[in-house]
Design a protein that fits this description.
The chain has 7 helices and 5 strands; from the N terminus they run E-E-E-H-H-H-E-H-E-H-H-H. By secondary structure, it is α/β, with parallel strands linked by helices. It has a single domain, classed as Nucleotidyltransferase, domain 5, CATH 3.30.420. The protein has a 5-stranded mixed beta sheet, sandwiched between helices. A hairpin with a 2-residue loop joins strand 2 and strand 3. Helix 5 crosses helix 7. The longest helix is centred in the last third of the chain and has 17 residues.
């Protein structure tokens, strides 16, 4: 298994499923080095476009929640600095990375980081699971999720994905508590 020293786990919530037509409206990211988390990035984004009703049912983000939030031109330079040249990790990385490549590209930023997909990794390590959704894998590794975890929100999913990444990389899983 490839060891990654510096990494950023990212999760995005979007207005729909198609990069280029739909936009990112929330980014959550967790940075780490080796086996430790070293920082976080989170923001809602007022992308100025409607949210497909199916997407809103999944993440619960409404147009009203985006009013007054930073515009993409403010968010992406800051996020690009946070990302740096770290390896990028995501659960179902092709989805998140395709949106990030498009959005960052609109502002002249490339996304050249190595990308790792925890969904693919978990399919390989845990083939017997009924599915490999983030919640299923986390319950398999850690037991019950803390009551304050709100799935399908970017920062909560990035934190949970970071926990999964570290557990699979380190070959260990610990019960999940709100403090770890």
């Amino acid at each position: 298994m490839e060891v990654v020293d510096r990494w950023v786990v990212v999760d995005v919530e979007t207005t729909g499923l198609s990069p280029g037509r739909d936009r990112i409206i929330e980014i959550g990211a967790v940075a780490g080095e080796g086996g430790k988390i070293t920082g976080e990035f989170h923001t809602l984004i007022d992308a100025g476009c409607p949210i497909h009703w199916r997407a809103q049912q999944v993440h619960g983000i409404s147009s009203r929640m985006l009013q007054g939030q930073p515009k993409p031109a403010v968010v992406y330079p800051e996020f690009h600095r946070f990302l740096g040249d770290c390896s990028l990790i995501a659960h179902n990385a092709p989805f998140d990375v395709s949106f990030l490549r498009h959005e960052l590209g609109l502002f002249g930023y490339g996304l050249t980081s190595a990308c790792h997909c925890t969904l693919r990794l978990c399919r390989r390590h845990y083939p017997g699971l009924p599915n490999h959704r983030l919640e299923t894998v986390a319950r398999h590794l850690f037991g019950e999720l803390p009551a304050d975890v709100r799935l399908h929100r970017a920062l909560a999913d990035a934190r949970l994905t970071a926990r999964v990444w570290l557990a699979v990389q380190g070959g260990e899983a610990r019960p999940m508590t709100p403090s770890n």
